[in-house]
Predict the structure.
Amino acid sequence: MTRPAQPAQPANPARPSVPATQRSQAKENRRQALLSAAASLFAANGFNRVSLEDLGAAAGVSGPAVYRHFQGKQAVLSDLLLTVSRELLDGGRSVVAATTDPVAALRRLVGFQVDFALGKPDVIRVQDRDFSNLTEKDQSEVRALQRNYVELWVEV
C-alpha cells in the first residue's frame, strides 16, 4: 500500500521559506547598514573605540551577528576604505573619459572630488584617521588605488 504524497515542509516550520533573492537582498542590505554604521561610528569615535557590539547595535543587529557579514571589525574597516578608494578611482576615470578637452576634464575632476568628499565626510575622516589600522596588505591596496587616482589628475 502506498502512502499519498505529502507536501514538502520547510526546513524550519517556524520560519517560512523565503526566496533566495529576497534573502540575499536582505543580507546585502544588512551588510550595507553595517558599513554605514561603521563609517559614522568610526568617524565619531575612532576605529579603536568602537566595539562589534556598538557596530551591531547601530545597524540593528547583535554584535556577534556582524560575523555573518564580516570576519571582524578589521574586515569592516578594510571593506569601507577599499570600497571608497575604488569608487573614487572609478568615478575619476568616468569623468576623464567623458571629455577630450583637458581643461574641461580638470574642471570636472575638481567638481567630482569636491562632491565626493562632501558626500562621504565620515568615510573621508575614517580614511584620514584610521588608515593605519588596516593590515599592511590592505594599506598597500588602498595606496595603489590612491596612486592611480592621482595619476588621472597628472595625465589631465
